[in-house]
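Title: Prediction job returns without error message
Component: structure pipeline
Severity: low
Priority: P3
Assignee: unassigned

Description:
Job completed but the reporter wants confirmation the result is attached to the right record. Sequence as submitted:
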Amino acid sequence: MLELILCSLLTVFPDYLYRRYAQGKRIGKEITLFSVWYELRWGITACVLLTVALITVIFYFHPSTTSATLYYRTVPLVPETIGRVADVNVDFSAPVKKGDVIFKLDSSKQEAALQTAQRKIAEVDAAMIAAQADVQKADAQIQEAKSSLQQATDELEVKRELQKRNPGIVPQRDIEKLEVIQTGRQGSLDAVMASKQSAVIRITSLLPAEKASAEAALAEAQVDLNKTSIRAGVDGRVEQFFLRPGDVVNPMIRSAGVLIPEGAGQRSLQAGFGQIEAQVMKVGMVAEATCISKPWVVIPMVVTSVQNFIAAGQFRGGEQLLEAQQTQRPGSILVFMEPIYKGGLDGVTPGSSCIANAYTSNHDVISAKGTSTGQRIWLHAVDAVGIVHAMLLRIQALLLPVKTLVLSGH
């Protein structure tokens, strides 16, 4: 309507002035309701064509959308294991800090495994002390075996010396008996030394390895026990938290609730513009938005990111071929906008529906030396008609509460 009125001032109104004052025709006489088309046909035709052209230029170079929302991501509260809820520490809606325990699962099994691992470590420590005692015992046995071996060796040497000096004075049987005793005591010494070596290896290698395994089992049991306490990963707020003691939580089926991070939905606005504006939407464009949750306020914004893919074209590979006709609605260009001024989104509820405009600016092209005069005039006209969309946005901002509260029927 605004474009039509503006175009009529440049076409129909001058045509009427020409008919009225230049040709002397009067309304109600020569210009009647039946002769309006014939008398003002040139002005009406030019008005319609100019209106269509103006609307096309405005909507193409200064796109607008009603599909704008402050999207935010929620963090699902999902335990890593299946379990029955033993304790709930937050209400239906409550703020939480990072690390706060939100709820706990039954941990009797994990506590038993933890105690078993702790006792295994104590058992290994006791075995370490026993092995050290075995080493000391082996040292004493080695000393005893060496003494016995030395005694048998000395006796054998004496007998051999006597036999060498006076053959036949010592029976050969006694010498052979002492040789057997010496060999036996040497074997006893070797056995005791092997026993000590085994005890030393047990202390230096086997038992430390067993203790390391027990400590790893203890750490694993502690991790499993910690998993039964579901904590907040970030600062935020738990909403619609209906979990109660006795409920069974299965991470494969459903989450226990959602955690909304602090500051979620308060940084940027996401808007979907038509595909035809893909060549117009650029990072750095000035934009404006007005939201239902904060009526009568127009928020100055700037385009910070333009998604280069349209979500409607995505598909997941499977056993069936893609059918193009299944994409019934054309997708939109997703654009991220941030407020120009700090705190611009204060008071806007995350998830609120908004109306957004983006404005093309050709100032750099107009200021360039290589730009022709005709191109400068055209670009000036393109930038100037953006005020029409700015006026429409403010009219929408004024009428939004009325439309929502009165005309919607709620």
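Comment from assignee: result matches the submitted record. Residues 108-165 form the longest helix (58 residues).
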